[in-house]
Structures are given as structure tokens and as C-alpha cells.
Design goal:
The complex is a heterodimer of chains A (about 130) and B (about 190). With about 130 residues, chain A is mainly α. Chain A has 5 helices and 3 strands, in the order αββααααβ. Chain A has a 3-stranded antiparallel β-sheet. Chain A is elongated and about 75 Å long. Chain B has 2 domains: about 50 residues; about 100 residues, Cytochrome C3 (Alpha-Beta Complex). The chains are: A mainly alpha (about 130), B alpha+beta (about 190).
Chain lengths: ~130, ~190
């Protein structure tokens, strides 16, 4: 290998590595806790932060069927139309978030904690790199 | 003696680093990418690490073995709010994918009915009859069938062998019933 070629490799190699590292950094990080749900169909339009619903917190206290059978939450992000008026009337989140089982609907800040601009969806690295992403 | 002390020191240092790394599985809410660290409510919320570090550890998802946590009584989640109907636990296993190339799938009804109501899967996702359902990994990876939960809230689809768990040499090779296991399996 000529000295010139070796020098070029010596410069390009680390540069390529740096570029690879930098482009990896642009891949969105699945940093949220697995199965965190962001609800933002209406929140920001109505002037509040999106809601972050942590599945991990709730499944310690309730089995899936309590919300997904008794309370009628469909198991598909975006398919549930949850209005604050529903919650105040004791439907959906309001079945527990009523100041008896959990904090009430007037505690806006405790649920509306999401980063502005986040689209609704399920977060936390649930994707597999499978066909859904190819 | 000195070298022994040094190697013990090294092992301890390594263990500390390993523990620090595993403790870092759960990010603080303020830096998890979905919470707004300036939102006034965030500081009042429970941190995942506080709640999850005491539960049976896993290598993926929430880093918690949720079924084991339930079976061992580490958690005792409520099973109903209003309904008077008692929880229906079904104990049998279903063997699936009998003719495929991967190991056979053992579906444990018990682990699923501990969490879910029959109506969460039957009949809109799966007909309640062994052999009546066509499964497709393609659909599952797209979030259909088992993928409604697995890959979103239950252990992710990277864990092939947790479902494809029965060696392909006949149903007589069904492993002894685990905590999630049950009675004689039905086959598909």
C-alpha cells in the first residue's frame, strides 16, 4: 500500500466512522418507557400539553381487562375518542380519576405532561425492525 | 495476596458497573423523550425505576416479567371495577404452527386470562376453536393478531423463542408446565 493511499485511508476511515456515528444519532431514540401512550388528538389544539399514559404504572394496579373490557378502551392507539367531558362524567379515565381511586380531572397538570408537538402513538421501542418498518 | 485483593477489587468494580448499567434501563421521566421536563406535573409522578426495580427482571420491554410478577404476588392488580362477574381463568395450552419450520408455538391460556377477559381476543381476533385460526407472522409484525399486544405492551416480537418454544418432534415433547403452563394442550 502506498504511503499516500495509507494517509488517505487514515483520514477517511475515522471520518467515515464519525459520519456513521452521527447518522446513527439521527435515528429517533425509543427512550420512553415501553408502551407509553401519547394522546394528542385534541390536547394541543385545545391549548394543553399532550397526555402521556404510562401502561407500566397502570398495569401494576389494574389488569388489562379493567380498562380494555369494562371501561371500553379499544386496543389500538388513536381509536379511542376520549373527551374531557367523558372523563368528568366518569367514563374512560374518569372511572378512576375521580378523586376517589386516583386524582380527579381538575388536576390537568398531572396527565398533560407530554412534550409539545408529539404525535399520538405508542412509544418506547415497541417496533421490531420488521415489515412494519421496512 | 496483593494480586488477589486487586482481582477482587476488579470484580467488585465490574459488578458495580454492571449494576449501574442495568439500573439505567429506566430513564427518569424528565429525560425520557415523551415528557416535557418543564411541565409542572412531572415532578409529582412516580418514576419508572422506583416502581419497576423491585419486580422480576427481564431483558426487554419494561424490563419486568409481568406474568411472573403477578403469579408470584409481587403485584396484585385489581381485576374489575364495577362488574360482579368473577375472573375466568382458563388453564389449557394451545399448540400452534404445527406444520411450520419454526418450533411449535405453545399458547398458555392461563398467562393470558390472568390479565385479560375472554372477550379481549374472542372472537374478533381469534375464533374460539383450536384449528380455526390462520396465523401469520407478517400480520403479527404489523400489529395484528398477537401483535395487537406483543410488540406494544407485552413482550416484544424479538423474543421468538418465548412463543416458539416446543421442539418439533411431536406434542409429547411439551415441556413441564411452568407457572404460566397448564393442563393437557389442545393442538391446532
Amino acid at each position: 500500500m502506498s504511503r499516500r493511499r495509507a494517509t488517505r485511508l487514515g483520514v477517511l476511515g475515522p471520518a467515515a466512522l464519525l459520519f456513521a456515528a452521527a447518522s446513527l444519532d439521527f435515528v429517533p431514540h425509543a427512550a420512553a418507557e415501553y408502551a407509553d401512550v401519547v394522546l394528542n388528538k385534541r390536547a394541543e389544539r385545545e391549548g394543553v400539553r399532550p397526555v402521556v399514559f404510562p401502561h407500566w404504572f397502570h398495569r401494576i394496579r389494574f389488569r388489562c381487562k379493567v380498562c380494555h373490557s369494562e371501561l371500553g378502551f379499544k386496543m389500538r392507539v388513536g381509536s379511542n375518542d376520549v373527551l374531557m367531558s367523558d372523563i368528568i362524567d366518569g367514563r374512560f379515565c374518569g372511572a378512576c380519576h375521580n378523586n376517589q381511586i386516583a386524582w380527579g380531572p381538575e388536576r390537568c397538570d398531572l396527565c398533560h405532561t407530554g412534550k409539545p408537538g408529539l404525535p399520538s402513538g405508542i412509544y418506547g421501542g415497541h417496533e421490531t425492525g420488521g415489515p412494519g418498518r421496512w | 495476596m496483593d494480586s488477589l485483593r486487586r482481582s477482587i477489587g476488579r470484580v467488585l468494580a465490574l459488578a458495580t458497573i454492571t449494576m449501574a448499567c442495568s439500573a439505567a434501563n429506566w430513564l427518569p421521566l424528565e429525560s425520557d423523550g415523551v415528557h416535557d421536563p418543564t411541565a409542572p406535573g412531572v415532578k409529582h409522578l412516580q418514576q419508572p425505576a422506583e416502581a419497576l426495580k423491585v419486580l422480576p427482571p427481564d431483558t426487554t420491554g419494561n424490563h419486568v416479567r409481568w406474568v411472573e410478577a403477578l403469579e408470584k404476588g409481587a403485584i396484585n392488580p385489581r381485576d374489575r371495577l364495577f362488574s360482579k362477574a368473577p375472573t375466568q381463568i382458563r388453564e389449557d395450552d394451545i399448540l400452534l404452527n404445527l406444520n411450520g419450520g419454526m418450533p411449535i408455538v405453545r399458547f398458555p391460556h392461563r398467562a393470558h386470562t390472568l390479565w385479560l377477559d375472554c372477550g379481549n381476543c374472542h372472537d374478533h381476533l381469534f375464533k374460539a376453536k383450536a384449528g380455526a385460526n390462520k396465523f401469520s407472522m407478517f400480520a403479527i409484525l404489523q400489529g395484528e393478531q398477537c401483535g395487537v399486544c406483543h410488540g406494544a405492551v407485552s413482550f416484544p416480537l424479538t423474543e421468538c423463542s418465548r412463543c416458539h418454544s416446543v421442539a418439533r418432534s411431536g406434542p409429547s415433547r411439551v415441556p413441564a408446565a411452568s407457572p404460566g403452563g397448564g393442563a393437557a394442550p389442545a393442538t391446532r
